[in-house]
TrEMBL record:
Bilayer-crossing regions: 462-480
One GO term (biological process): kynurenine metabolic process
PANTHER family xrefs: KYNURENINE 3-MONOOXYGENASE
Protein name: 2-polyprenyl-6-methoxyphenol hydroxylase
Species, as recorded: Parasphingorhabdus marina DSM 22363
SUPFAM superfamilies noted in UniProt: FAD/NAD(P)-binding domain (SSF51905)
High-level lineage: Bacteria, Pseudomonadati, Pseudomonadota, Alphaproteobacteria, Sphingomonadales
Amino acid sequence: MTPDNRQIVISGGGPSGLAAALLFADLGWEDIVLVERRQSPGDFEKNKAFNYQIDPRGQKLLKRLEINRMLDEYGVANRGFTLTSIGPDGEASLTSPPIIDPDRETSYWTTRRNFLEMMYRAVAERNDGRIRLLYDHSFQGITLDADEIPRVTISDGNGAKQIFQPDLLLACDGLVSQARQSLAQWPGMAPDYFEMIQYPSASTGLTYKVLNLPACFPVQGKIDAADDHRMTYSIVSRHTNPGDAMALFAFPVTDPGHPRSVNIIRAADHNLWKIDNADDLIAYLQDAFPQLDISEIVSRAEAEDFVKIEAGRFPAPQHARHVHAKIGQGHNVMHCLLIGDAAHAFPPDLGLGVNSALEDLFVLDDILASAGGNLEEVCHTYEKQRLPNNASLTRLVQTVAPYQYNHKPWHFRKWLLMFMIQLGLNRIMPWLIDKPTFQLTQNHDLDFVEIERRQKKSRSTLMLLGAALTAALLFGLVALF
């Protein structure tokens, strides 16, 4: 491809930011500047030690960038979902909940840390000098100087500033996007132009922290150890009251020497969040999980970090009212696009955060290819395509599976029952009843507008079937008398 001498500034060095740098390098752009506030590529925020499942939706971009095979090294491949549950007495049971679409292609479990390492390695191996990775830098703002040329200002950890004059600014810097906030404050911008439209959800406000455990660890009871680092384990607490009940979800890791990131997700008033010192935490966990020797598998340093780090909270499902802005006039123009969490953010109910961000870039690449380098057309088309998709995605996260964390047990059981009923009806009458929406979201060939349309159709059909069944029962009762 003929090199393009235009400049792009990418705010944010997470998965979507690094992927964007790779994408625009492949497209031939000559000056690619990535701005990331972390001090170095190896600096990982402990409160962001998430687990990712890179599914076929996210893999579309990785395949196009020809780095998908790296997932075999940095992740654990899976087609379905197999879980080993370990009860308080140490008894283990292997289950395969039918929540995964059997037609789904291979996905990969990985940690955020591993995925960032993979993406950084891909950038480093391909960087021929056109990509500038500015770690320990932060986005400061956008200005329009006397020459009426839009400029972006960034600063390093010492406050030293650099000024760029990009043709394109990509906001890949998350829900609390500095780039989006700067754009929203631009003179003449409508106050609600970049407003985040929020939807209520049953999982909004759930509190989470991450506890690191060894990849393999001993178990006291009927099995000796959780000794398969490629297996998902659910370690169930002995408590059943809402204030103490919980489970430790230990997701697979590819390296047995790499710690597992164990998610703990509970309501904000859970007693775990009231603990403020390492000794009390270890004692509390030991009481809750008699099947584990907590003092052996949770170091004091890990316990101290856990209580010190501020817990995260799931946001409301939300999307930006717009994802494109144009700054300047005539030839002195900078286009700005929102990518990933800067454009749409939500709880991890469907595992679509990182995957939908990568899909944003995949769609952007398609548009760039068809628009022949006309940025004005590219950006308008991107907004036209992504806005309805983002709105549907956000509403799907709001409604499809917010009770899966079992923070409201009755609602969780009701959700599971309805899921199984629809799954059974789909197997009997696939021409009439669609797959459960949770499974439809795993189909990377469907956009979210289409998935939402099919969700609404299934709801209407199920309601009609329910009404018909109720009427038939009532008619039968009347006939008896």
